[in-house]
Design a protein that fits this description.
The structure holds two protein chains of two kinds. Helix content of chain A is about 30%, strand content about 15%. Chain A is α+β, with helices and mostly antiparallel strands. In chain A, helix 2 runs parallel beside helix 7, helix 7 runs antiparallel to helix 8 and helix 7 crosses helix 10. By secondary structure, chain B is an all-alpha fold. The chains are: A alpha+beta, B mainly alpha. The complex binds protoporphyrin IX containing FE, iron/sulfur cluster and FE2/S2 (inorganic) cluster.
């Protein structure tokens, strides 16, 4: 076990537009061990050097998706990136590209979430009206493990926005839904409880929609959860152009008696 | 205590926090070296596509000079007989070879063919869509473009006639 302590330099992007503070980098010397994450180092700097440092985080375990930032030139989760794996004595933290900047490393996700919401990311099934749940006769959908595997990886998305910040189309087109939202559109297409395909197809198949994706693959390159948004998007294109036959059988309900 | 009326509370609230867009814009587009081979492919496909389009328009203009008689046509042809013209044609050869071969790869991948199937993600979460099978298409396109350019270079600059 190596308890070795290293000294590294943490360069953090600082700005506060409300105070007319022009962007600059602040440097902090931080002692790190083999397992120290970038988030640990930032919190160290915040605790012992400058409490005004603006960062956002919550779970510290790659589950909440709030600590995304650009670390040494690449979008990463600060809590999921060990300093030791970066092989660098200087760690540079910038706010996530393609997101509006609020202060320091904190970015605004309003628009990103709006894109996600726009693809109606919930089960559509006209056979199952929402009020059925009240009547207490709905129990559950029948779904096999194989059915689940078709969409499971896409449902692992934590909405961290790393894919959105790596995408070259998002970089220049504000109306483009981005890899997160588009891959979620596929997630519901692949889910056999959902029958909202035509609704969602209409949403993504428009001028600034799915066809602005040219498979640059950068989203899947940076996604920390194995969602592989580029896979979902290309598979969805296959459905839209009719190359992939949709043989989805809508799941039936298990009644209470069953 | 409680919520203050708006007139008393004119510090920044949700709506007037000032933001900067943070979009990378064209600068983000210009650097293709950050996110693996697929990003390079994307970049080159667009660059060569637009390049070929410009060449194509120029090419129509060039060949249409034929209607002005053989002399006009010949003086056009001379433009391509210079060293600069040769280098330009080499770029066209490379661009068209890469664009065609990689274009075929993209026709498949962007229709969902050759990029793998969804499954249960496992650490270290390598993306199946970025697999070596489709990625090698980019390398083949680059290799063939290089070979085509070498051959073209030999024809234009070398002894081969
Ligand atoms: C048989 C030969 C060709 C094939 C197989 C081919 C294939 C493709 C494909 C698949 C794309 C879409 C790539 C994407 O989604 O990002 C594309 C884009 C493009 N191609 Fe071609 N192409 C060929 C010839 C040409 C020629 C001769 C020209 C010019 C006159 C051209 C100009 C373009 C342009 C301008 C784009 C748009 C690039 C972009 O938006 O990124 N292509 N090509
Ligand atoms: S697809 Fe991946 S990178 Fe994109 S928001 Fe979801 S978890 Fe983050
Ligand atoms: S703090 Fe929750 S994902 Fe990093």
């Amino acid at each position: 076990m190596s308890e070795e302590t290293n000294k590294i330099k943490l360069k953090v992007y600082r700005t506060n537009y409300n105070k007319e503070e022009s962007p600059h980098y602040d440097e902090f010397d931080v002692s790190v061990k083999r397992w120290t994450t970038v988030l640990d180092a930032l919190l160290d700097a915040k605790s012992y050097s400058d409490s005004s440092l603006g960062i956002r985080y919550s779970c510290r375990m790659a589950s909440c998706g709030s600590c995304g930032m650009k670390i040494n030139g690449r979008p990463r989760l600060a809590c999921y990136t060990k300093i030791s794996e970066l092989n660098d004595q200087t760690i540079v933290c910038d706010p996530l590209p393609n997101f509006p900047r609020i202060r320091d490393l904190v970015t605004d996700f309003t628009e990103f979430f709006a894109h996600h919401k726009k693809i109606e990311p919930y089960i559509h099934n006209e056979k199952v009206p929402i009020d059925v749940a009240k009547k207490d006769d709905l129990v559950e959908f029948k779904q096999t493990p194989e059915d689940v595997d078709k969409y499971l990886q896409f449902s692992y998305c934590i909405k961290c926005g790393l894919c959105y910040s790596a995408c070259p189309t998002v970089a220049t087109d504000t109306k483009f839904p981005g890899p997160q939202a588009l891959s979620q559109a596929y997630r519901y297409t692949a889910d056999n409880r959902d029958s909202g395909e035509s609704t969602r197809f209409n949403i993504v198949d428009e001028r600034h929609g799915i066809w602005r994706c040219h498979f640059a693959g950068s989203c899947s390159n940076v996604c920390p959860k194995g969602v592989d948004p580029a896979l979902g998007i290309q598979l969805l294109k296959g459905h839209l152009i009719g190359i992939t036959k949709n043989d989805k059988k809508i799941a039936t309900l298990r009644s209470k008696e069953e | 205590m409680g919520i203050k009326p708006n007139s008393e509370n004119n510090s920044s609230t949700g709506d007037d926090i000032r933001l900067k867009s943070g979009r990378e814009g064209l600068m983000g587009w210009l650097n293709p070296t950050r996110y693996g081979w697929e990003r390079v492919s994307y970049w080159l496909q667009r660059l060569t596509g637009v390049g070929l389009l410009i060449y194509f328009i120029g090419h129509i203009y060039e060949t249409s000079s034929l209607v002005n008689g053989i002399n006009a046509w010949n003086s056009m042809l001379e433009l391509t007989q210079t060293t600069g013209g040769h280098i330009f044609l080499l770029l066209v050869i490379g661009a068209s070879t890469f664009h065609t071969v990689n274009g075929l790869r993209l026709i498949f991948t962007e229709s969902g063919i050759g990029i793998g199937r969804p499954g249960r993600p496992d650490y270290p979460y390598d993306a199946t869509s970025l697999n070596y099978k489709q990625k090698s298409g980019i390398w083949v396109a680059l290799l063939l473009a290089t070979i085509a350019m070498l051959y073209g270079g030999m024809v234009m600059f070398g002894d081969v006639t």
